[in-house]
Predict the 3D structure of the following.
Amino acid sequence: MQTHAFAPLAALPETGGYFDILKVVLFLLCGFLTWYNAAWVDKDTVKIHTQRGPWNAAVFGTGSAFLVVWMLVPVYWVGFAIFAVAYGAAIVSYCVFHNGRVAPAETVLTPAHFRRLFSSKAQTQDEIHSKDRVRLKDSNDKTPPWPTDPAAHRGYQGLQDLLFDAIWRRASDVRLDLIPSQQVKVVYKVDGVERAREPIDPDLGDMIFRHIRTIGGMNPDELRRPQGGHFTASIGAGGKGDRKVDVDVKSLGSTAGQRIVFKLFAEESKFRINEVGFTPDQFKAFEPVVQNLKGVIVCSGPRGSGVTSTMYAIIRSHDAFIQNINTLEISKALDLENVTQNVFDSKDGAATFARRLQSMLRTDPDVAMASDTPDAETAQLVANYGRQGKRVYLGMAAKDVFSALRQYAHYVGDNALVASSLAAVCNQRLLRKLCENCRKAYRPDPALLKKANLPTGENRPFFRPPNPDEIEADKQGNPIVCPICQGSGYLGRSGVYEVLIIDDALRSQLAAGASLQELKAEARKRGTLYLQEVALRKVYDGITSINEVLRVTKEPAAAKARR
């Protein structure tokens, strides 16, 4: 009896049979792999500029969830198989996504990746070059491969060098002129001022032109017909300090040669209304008018003065998720998130700008924008829509607010409609801001301060860019240029504005058909400042220089300002 009572105990496993050290180690290794890959994905999504949250959830969430499933499944190896399939699918999906958006030398889980891991040989020349100086994404948002043909490879390297230099110098426009048997002329526009750069050899230039057309989504073999395309480019180490630009490309040719023009739009060009350059007093008066969402606001200025950027900045101040916002533009400069942007194309001649605007307004947007005022019909449509209690932004070519007001009134042709529809008029220029790293201080002439109606008792210095004889040289005699502005003395631009708010007093004068002089007198009585007066205050605040103010506020040579 005693022997039979203890027999089942003898059948039990020996001590330690419930604990398999190898299985525990494998489970812990898989847990560590899940954590390690999640940390890499979190950093990598920032580096390649993609959505961070969804990928973190897919990779880390899948790994964590199926580790729990593994523990709950009674059969160890079945649980491991379920984890391996589910987590493997998640991490491989991200790797495929990653590989499509990086340079060839940065791919993972590819034959090239394993060769890099297990090879102790020095990198080949192609592998060195594949560490892109400029990270490009073509028109399909894919990373273009480096060409294997030596001539094409050299051309691609030339394109990399050109784009790096243009982005580093903060160029907003790049123009390339290719004339057979001549060096390629290269012109940058930096802070609104054109600068010639070193020319490019014609053979290299021809290859660069071909690469640009290919990356931009254009036909590389079409040399005569105008084409348009786009791509993105970024420089930097792959972190928050990167400079990324959206590049619009236009290509055209003739029997004389070819031309390609880039427009580079950086993140800093996506301004908000409080960042474009209004003075605190102007912004305090203008911002409530913008938020009121009633009436017409005319935004005016000469060609290249930043009117479109200002209208975009104002539109960004509206809630595009709640309000229906529509624009009609001759050409779209940037994409506005959640805004319906209509581009006017007059090539077929079937409809005028005004007809297209009328069609857009029939959709009854809460906020509308017309980039230009080509005729009286456009102004009349805008005025009637504004009188209905809707907000319209109207772009116009004019040298000051009163010229814009006169032109708007002339086009509308009805004083009562002008008075009831108009909310505000602004006029602007773009002036370069001094580089704070290399600007030079000096004492202004008290007579100038008095003439400009600026305080004379504060003994505040003015600033200017350094003169050529003030630039230091190294031991070899080479000038040491400022690393911030690359020696230009200026860094970035700011708008300078005239702002005329249409209050009840001005509205009554407009309805009564008051003269322009009467309107000016009323505006001055309320403290409205002219453009040059506002610009001189920016000099007083150390933002810009006297010479820059004189450059941007001088009367245009043409009789009629063009935007």
User: Anything to note?
Assistant: Confidence is low (pLDDT under 50) at residues 122-130, 557-563.
